[in-house]
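thought: fold this chain, then report.
action: predict
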Amino acid sequence: MAIREIRVVPDPVLRTPCDPIEEITPAVRHLVQDLLDTVDDPGRAGLSANQIGVNLRAFSYNINGKIGYVLNPVLEETSGEQYGDEGCLSVPGLWYKTRRADYARVRGIDLEGKTVVLEGRGIMGRMLQHETDHLNGHVYLDRLEKEERREAMRYMRNHHK
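observation:
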């Protein structure tokens, strides 16, 4: 299908909670293929639909050579804590230490309507939380301490007009 352009902060689509996918239509199948094509690039851990301008609850991932997707994901469980560098395709050029749960589990469906459970620790746990945040209209900068968040937003205003 296609590698899609990534929307960047302050694009309002990134701040809009995504709608659930009510029906698996050809458009949803096309979206999933675009998400998979676009995330299939070294250094890309995950990609939510709103990052390519589509306001639906879906994301793709690319962790340790495994590429996949989930529709209508719900973050079911988190535990532990990690504090490490996090970046985002919609916030290019910036990496900040971000506090997340170490373990996360997400439940959703695939294109056949079958249940999908994704879970993991470390980078997988971070990605699951990061992408579900996107689908709820949040970017990782929202989780930073106030001074770092202010600095990041100033950088984005000055470098991405």
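thought: worth noting. Strands lie at 46-48, 58-63, 66-79, 82-88, 91-100, 103-109, 115-121.
final: tokens above.
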